[in-house]
Write a structure and sequence with these properties.
CATH topology of the largest domain: Translation Initiation Factor IF3
Order of helices and strands: EEHEEHEHEHEE
Distance between the termini: 21 Å
Number of helices: 4
Shape: rod-shaped
CATH architecture of the largest domain: 2-Layer Sandwich
Structural class: alpha/beta
Number of domains: 2
Strand content: 25-35%
Helix content: 25-40%
Length: 175
């Protein structure tokens, strides 16, 4: 990720006695005294920008600082736009789910996985249904089986109180 340094030293803010200077056309001008480097930048009507402050001696470049800052911000925006933060989406089902409702929930889960979000399937037991955990497990197993082309089980089914849940992650892209 491209990170803009918080404080980039420019012109008079550069405090080192000697710096390695790179010219406006990317040519090496060598190690010079800071006053001479500033004179070279003024002759070109550009700024002296410290691009590698940790090097010895620090590397400075003669360039238009405002254009450099704009290009860095543009790169950062492009990187930010291409990133996707995976979210956790939850789907609630019951052990006695009807076929049509099951298909709707399945389509919903597939659409979340296609958007690269993780899906947590929560199967709720009400009342005495909790005695039939095997029925709930069959429903979850069928769900996992039908969603297999789109996602993989990240965390197997777990019983937490009256809720049986399973975590499904999207399939990794093949490159």
């Amino acid at each position: 990720m491209v990170v803009i340094q918080k404080y980039i030293r420019v012109n008079e803010r550069i405090r080192c006695p000697e710096v390695r200077v790179i010219g406006p056309n990317s040519e090496q001008l060598g190690v010079v005294v800071i006053k001479r480097a500033l004179e070279l930048a003024q002759e070109s009507e550009l700024d002296l920008v410290e691009v590698a402050p940790t090097a010895t001696p620090p590397v400075c470049r003669i360039m238009d600082f405002s254009k450099y800052k704009y290009d860095q911000e543009k790169k950062e925006r492009r990187v930010k736009r291409s990133q996707h933060v995976a979210q956790l989406k939850q789907i609630r089902i019951k052990p006695h789910i009807d076929e049509n409702d099951f298909q709707i929930k399945l389509r919903q889960a597939v659409s979340f996985l296609e958007k690269k979000d993780k899906v947590k399937i929560n199967l709720f037991f009400r009342g005495r249904e909790v005695a039939y955990k095997d029925l709930g497990q069959k429903v979850l197993d069928r769900f996992i089986e039908e969603i297999a082309p789109h996602g993989q089980v990240e965390k197997p089914s777990v019983m937490e109180g009256r809720v049986m849940s399973v975590m499904i992650a999207p399939l990794a892209d093949k490159q």
